[in-house]
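Worked problem 6 (solution included).
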Amino acid sequence: MPHTIHPVAAVLGVIVHESRVLLVRRSNPPDAGFWGFPGGKIEAGETIEQAVLREVNEETGLRVIYQSTDVPLEAFDYNAAGELLYHYLLIPVICAWQGGEPTAASDVFEARWFDAAALLSGDFSFSKDVVELAIKQINPAHA
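Solution. The predicted structure is:
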């Protein structure tokens, strides 16, 4: 019987501080070497808020405050033969910076702040919808 792929729920922290958004450059597949929002899988028994606070702290050392969630997105990861490896249900979580300086920690090479212009001009591997959400958090007039 073939292996069944079940969706994996994960959070993406959209963290705003001083009109900038935090991004991390991933060190592990499937997005190794690419910039994206800090986050990861929701553990069994963990709420969305608990997951985003834990993931952001593990990956960047920052302390953040949960504010709200946005519409979940789907992402699919395929191997070279086109077979589905992972099906992710990604939940963007808007957070405010509470303290700390971003430092690359678990699963990341680099963590730093990006302004709206960098988000608009960058070549990022993550969803355009999450970038637009981040820009709206930086500049509500852009909505």
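Discussion: The longest strand covers residues 84-99.
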